[in-house]
Amino acid sequence: MPEVSGAAAAPRTLAEALRARGDEGLAALLRARPDLLNPVPNDLTQLATRAGTRGSVVRALERLDRFALQTAEALAVAPDPAPYPVLLGLLTGDEGDPEIEAALPGAVALLREQALVWGEDDRLRLVRTARELLAPSAQHPSPTGLGPTVAEATSGMSPGRVQEIIAAAGLSATHDAVSAVAALTALFTDRARMGALLDTAPPEALAVLDRLVWGPPYGEVTAKPAAPVQWLRDHGLLLPVSPRTMVLPREVALHLRGGRAHRSPEPRAPEPAVLREYRPQVVDSAAAGQAQLALATVEELLKSWDRGGPPVLRAGGLAVRDLKRTAAALDVSEETAAFWLELCYGAGLLASDGEADERYAPTPAYDDWLDLPPAERWALLVTPWLSATRTPGLVGGQDAKGRALSALGPDLDRAPAPEVRHRVLGLLATLPPGSAVEPESLFARLRWERPLRGAAAAGDGDDLRSRLARWTLAEAELLGLTGRGALSGPARALLNLPLAEAASPGEPGGGVEPAVAAGRAATLLAPLLPEAVDHVLLQADLTAVAPGPLRRPLADALAVLADVESKGGATVYRFTPGSVRRALDSGQTATDLHEFLKAHARTPVPQPLTYLVDDVARRHGHLRVGAASAYVRCDDDTVLGEILADRRSSSLGLRRLAPTVLAAQTDPASLLEGLRSMGYAPAAESATGDVLITRADAYRTPARTAPVPVPDGPPAPDTTLLGAAVRAIRAGDRAATAVRKEPAAAPTAAGALPRTSAAETLATVQAAAMTGSAVWIGYVNAEGGASQRVIAPVRVEGGFVTAYDHTADEVRTYPLHRITGVAELADDQV
């Protein structure tokens, strides 16, 4: 195809600038701004239009780092278009700054890549929507602190007033207001003349300028302003925007600032500082200890809800009193308890049962989770945590309507949470192994990377990203991803991060599947975790010490026979009459308990424990409770007499039916509980007189899936989608911009579909099929949608034309009766 004349000329629009890019440049734009892909634009003009819409520009600005955003803000206060030296001067000032000079080309290239800036270096243009968002105005002050230009501030001023300012400034009178404003602007931008004018200003007037120079540029004045303010007003250094408000013109502020648009340009990202350094082995050991504690905490929490947990609030979530009870049971703060609950919920181990009286309970996935090795269980907890958008740190706060946010309730999703978690851990990986980060330096880095994210997100107040980062550091320590504040080896494997390099901002890093990375992390963690033991140490004070994590069957059996007294590196269990009775209620006999203790004790069974088991077993089942409403029977009638004589039995409504039988006015369960509170050990019996064995049958919800994270905008496109999208946009653009050879007798209006008769259409496409040339057609689909296409006909038969469609980049078949017309392409387009 011959080169079109003027193709190398400077682009006049954003669409032309995009048209001059290569495929890699278009792919980079679509990768950085995936919202432009939904749906795929028909051509580059539509892509440029979509890239300039307000919503898309706002999303793009929110993902700029601080220096790129400062560059865009400087362009917003610069002339349009702005030469590169002017932009450089706004960022470096009169004195220059080598660091800014080195960083600015990269910032401009980034803005160009994201289609926020276009044009050559001698004519840089900020996209109009971005200029509207970033340019100073009274309603939306600029971060630069600059005000309007002289021309903008005097737009509503009377010509006479403008001439008065010109005269007071020592300038010659002009014949019109436009030239007068131009003369005043030239004065304020001339450093020498402006310096001479300020030398004549009263010191008090200069003090007023000092207060306004870095913003805000607006100030209120009285009806009769003081002499210094009046002097500034007379000389145009302050211009009125209302009867009581004055503004410092942009040109004056830039002169006073030495040409800088920003007080503190930040071309370089702040580096996270090291707080303390440890040996990597110490970090991994501490992290493994936390991982073991995390597994034990999750298991304890869900085991306590094994028969059904607290009810679900009508609005969803857990009641405050239930959260407090959970925190007390786990011996943690309410904030930490909320984290463990959300962790179980996010991993799919906990859910609501969906019944009429809805309550929380473990899911069937919890039983499968228990059967896995400890390292794999840990990986199944931390992997969903990394990608979860639910934010436990918000529990206890309020939503936008002032309603309390509850654990497991709605409105806890924050879309930036996964990106912040990945980025925090990625920044920890940039530090030397074993180094703990100084938190404030980490938060400063995150603010530099996304200055517009945080406070503006979800209305959560100040700097949401810093709060998310703070919660991430605490939660990573609880999970064992970090030890003593430093990133552990298994965490690096989970993130697939190199030893001393971080992922790019906003990217989780690595190129393997999450499941593969989780498997690697579990493999690294497994040797660091203590091995499960199959024995306990019995002591004479009716306690047993587990010197490490117990194997599953032993842990389950011991949890029935004894109560946990303390947790830590070694768990202490205490045997009580109630715990022994609980074991007997589960169907075990005294002989079973004695054999169990001998088999799993590394020390001799203490005599007090033997006596305790025998004493409870001797009395267990001596009394029988059934349904009368309820009854008590006992072979020893003196025992029943003692019960009737005891004042504590009055609430049970007991009366003697026979020497060995008492009837009660309460239900069997309440009768059992009442007699046990009196110190007896009754056993329940069935209608046939058999002893009822109570088993700890677990209550489970129906199968539930884990909550799906809320996406933070469109997903990042993969390479295949990007390639297909670029080809489709290129093909559509060729069809939209192809030069057509219009029939002389029936010219087609610009943008209209070609119109030819059926015979002309058939003849033209047949000729194109024989010569292998491309033609331009108008086509109306079955839904009535009209489009223009460039096709290369291959075969024409049976009322259909089969052709390669350059617009869709594929072979298609078109009914001839739906083609409105056809035109040949111009010779230089063939």
UniProtKB/TrEMBL annotation:
GO terms for molecular function: DNA binding. It holds the Pfam family WYL. Residues 536-658 form the Helicase XPB/Ssl2 N-terminal domain. Signal peptide: none annotated. Residues 760-822 form the WYL domain. Keywords: DNA-binding. The keyword DNA-binding applies. The keyword DNA-binding applies. This is Probable DNA-binding protein. It comes from Streptomyces venezuelae (strain ATCC 10712 / CBS 650.69 / DSM 40230 / JCM 4526 / NBRC 13096 / PD 04745).
